Amino acid sequence: MLKFTQEHEWVRIEGDVATVGITQHAQERLGDLVFVELPEVGKSFAKGALSAVVESVKAASEVYAPIGGEVIAANPAIVADPSLVNSDPMGAGWFFKLKVADPLEVDALMDEADYKALLG
């Protein structure tokens, strides 16, 4: 199941694990990424908490936890090569994985049709 936030993060739900990244729209607006800082495995976030930082040639931006949970994996490939987020934001450019704390928070996220409507 794929969900989205108004802050342009995507969330792929598989069982009780949520993979999080930024959308195609977000990476296009940021431009070429040059730095990514990810959360440590074992760290827990409440929904809406600052969870990662990205820097591009244009600006720095913060990534917020779309749902609450504990980080169970972070993607070292995008730390070593931030351009992966630009080339494959919804695939190889994923940021981190959370163990879902509250499934009701997932239900509150937008589906793809709602996200496309948000973009206009």
Can you tell me about this structure?
The chain has helices spanning 24-30, 76-80, 83-87, 103-107, 112-119, and strands spanning 2-4, 9-14, 17-22, 33-37, 44-45, 50-56, 60-64, 69-74, 96-100. The chain has a six-stranded antiparallel sheet. A three-stranded antiparallel sheet has the order 4-6-7. The protein has a single domain (2-102), classed as OB fold (Dihydrolipoamide Acetyltransferase, E2P), CATH 2.40.50. The model has no long low-confidence stretch (mean pLDDT 96). By secondary structure, the chain is α+β, with helices and mostly antiparallel strands. Strand 6 and strand 7 form a beta hairpin.
Give a quick set of tags describing it.
9 strands; single chain; alpha+beta; 6-stranded antiparallel beta sheet; about 120 residues; OB fold (Dihydrolipoamide Acetyltransferase, E2P)
